[in-house]
Amino acid sequence: MPSPELEIQNLKVSFSTPKGKLTAVNGISFHINSGETLALVGESGCGKTVSALSILRLLPEPPAEIISGKILFAGQDLLSLSSKQFQDLRGNAISMIFQDPMTSLNPVLTVGEQIIETLLRHTNMNRQEARKKSAELLSRVELPAPKEKLTHYPHQLSGGMRQRVMIAMALACKPRVLIADEPTTALDVLIQSQILDLLHSLKKETGMSILFITHDLGVVAEIAQRVIVMYAGEIIESGPAQALLQKPYHPYTKGLIASIPKLGARDQPGSRLEEISGNVPSLDQRPSGCPFHPRCPSVMDQCKSQAPELSQVEPERYTSCHLEPESL
Amino acid sequence: MNTEKLLVVQDLKKHFQPSKKFLQTTPAPVRAVDGISFTLLKGETLGLVGESGCGKSTAARTLLRLLEPTSGQVSFCGTQLFDLKEAEMRTLRSEMQIIFQDPYSSVNPGRRIGKILQEPFEIHGFKDNKENTEKAKHLLKQVGLTPGHFNNYPHELSGGQLQRVGIARAIALSPKLIVADEPVSALDVSIRAQVINLLLDLKERLNMSYLFISHDLGVVEYFCDRVAVMYLGKIIEFADNEQIYNSPQHPYTQALLNAIPNLESGRDKQKITLKGDISMLAPQRKGCAFLNRCPIKEKRCEEQEPVLKEIAPGHQVACLLKS
Q: How far, in Å, are A261, B42, B184, B193 from residue B198 at the CA level?
């Protein structure tokens, strides 16, 4: 039995807005095993980024508020740490890369300065050593001419290169957990493929765990061992990646998979993609009962009033749906 | 298929001149679009595919004259666009519309949706306010929104709904040509399928031609009759949908297809990932533009620049090793 590196228990996060208190994450629990890549999948507004940000306590509080829950890492509850204690952890044992590398790098500091800063904060290196280490890190993420790149500003690099810099920075202190929030969404397919390859080999080498947040199920198939699908702040399905993608249980997961254009799937010109009707509900218009029922093709009366609970359907597979497992 | 030519692009070029820095020689121009030619038939959908920075968006904007071209010819329904005066061009714009990638930045955030949709009519001389309101409401219905959205502001709509507004605005004046610049890249998966289906429906109903720009070959396959693959300002492969997907010839096209994440096979399949990206390439004078990243290059590729050659009916490729 692999040991969990990071465990989230019953996390509930809400935001105070003019429309009242809105729940973005509604009591989710999951864990990441050591050395595992766990994908957190869902559409905009489903709460996947909020969950990730609350693990690192990066949410602005207020308006955000972690109402309940525990985040266990290395035997302690991260939510009970003081912000000072947390600073020693963030970017060190747990680090994060973001979707848009342009807005998450400091535009007026050179790439080198930004990596060195991380190293100086968390290690005993002096400036010279940190500089040398930074160049090593950049060459580790396969940036050409790493020494030269240290003196470059973010705007002198392309999107793919910036994302490599972000990864180098996140890996500087050999984190045990890397949280990757849509790291390839802003990139082209070719560059995406390069970054996925890189993350894959870095993980093999360092043995870290990755929490990979994405809305692209194709990417999930490429990188993850396990998948959690979120909808409207709740986990609606989870399981091993291969099994879940081949045989999804929840109607939402099925819809997501069907709506991806697949190569060679178009039989004749003019054929249509399968679509999930309707929109992702906004936080202030959360449907009663099962949050997916207004868009669900197999909705029943029960779904409108009663929220289903996440339950096991087969070993390692969980889903929250009122339909009988046989008919899923 | 109708064989009437709607748009003929000949040797279109758009170069940008970087500004000269103090005490430096004038830098070489950035050749964003470097001589592309193609023909778009009436009712046809042409896909323009390539990585960021390959010049596909610049090409689209230049041929609509949103950017002034460096050289070349574009003929639209027989009219030479680059010979027209500003005012004449403005009148013709009702026939050619564009849909942008980011729905939020392409609408005025301070205007109501209804007003945004009435504007095309007002600009093109329809002064009857009541009629314009009716037309705007009809447009909302056509793209799957409700007249209830008429008084909303853009921030009250989701990304997918707002992209529908962008589409409604583009079809308002029943154009013959729609240039769609990555119309679904910024949308969520479930919404992306809805918008693609909407565009396909509208195409059939209104008999429009599309120039569909995307970096996602998976989406393009659903959408396009023919596909042009661009690399560093040039078209390097041009073929029918089936030819591109069943027998891609250029090593770059093959790499693009290979890079699409695949649900079934996952990580197991053998992948050839291209190294590097477009922007890190120094402009080279001689040889094939793809040389630095090409997995199958030979000696002669360094010397001779390939040109588009037909290798099968309707299938052109610019590679010395394939023609």
A: 15, 19, 11, 9
Which residue from A43, A192, A266 is facing B188, i.e. has the nearest CB?
A43
Nearest to B224 by CA among B3, B48, B37, B39: B48
**B194 interfacial to chain A (CB closer than 8 Å):** yes
What separation in angstroms does the CA of A109 have from each of A44, A115, B294? Answer: 31, 10, 34
| Nearest CB to B160; choose among A245, A257, A279 | A279
**CATH architecture for segment(s) B5-12+32-224:** 3-Layer(aba) Sandwich (3.40)
Any B CB within 8 A of A145 CB: no
Is the CB of B263 less than 8 angstroms away from the CB of A259? no
Q: What is the DSSP letter of B93?
A: G
The pLDDT score that the predictor gives to residue B7 is: 92
Q: Which residue from A193, A221, A261 is facing B259, i.e. has the nearest CB?
A: A193
Assembly ipTM: 0.78
Give CA–CA dist B288/B301, Å, rounded. 6
* Residues B316, B310 contacting (CB under 8 angstroms): yes
Residue type for position A278:
G
| Domain chopping of chain A, boundaries | 1-75+196-258+275-328
Assess B265–A contact: CB distance below 8 Å, yes or no.
yes
String of b and e for A193-227 (b: at least 16 CB within 10 Å)?
A: bbbbbbbeebbeeeebbbbbbbbbbbbbbbbbebb
pLDDT tens for each residue of B130-170: 889 999 998 998 888 888 889 989 988 888 888 889 999 99
Helical H segments across A77-126, by residue range: 83-89, 101-104, 111-122
State the residue for tokens 């009435």. B118
pLDDT of A326 above 80: no
CA dist., res. A239 & res. B218, Å (int)? 26
**CATH code, residues A1-75+196-258+275-328:** 3.40.50.300
Q: What is the pLDDT of residues A309-324, one digit of tens each?
A: 888 888 889 998 888 7
pTM confidence score: 0.82
Beta carbons within 10 angstroms of residue A122's beta carbon: 19
B-contacting residues in A 66-105 (Cβ below 8 Å): none
Q: What is the pLDDT of residues A7-21, one digit of tens each?
A: 999 999 988 888 888
Asked if pLDDT for residue A240 goes beyond 60, the answer is: yes
Residue B217 at interface with chain A, using a CB cutoff of 8 Å: yes
The model's pLDDT over B231-277, given as tens digits with 9 standing for 90+, comes to: 888 999 999 988 888 889 999 998 888 888 777 665 545 566 677 66
Kindly list the distances between the CA atom of residue B309 and the CA atoms of A11, B20, B129, B241, in Å, as whole numbers in the listed order.
60, 38, 53, 18
Are the beta carbons of B221 and A261 separated by less than 8 Å? Answer: yes
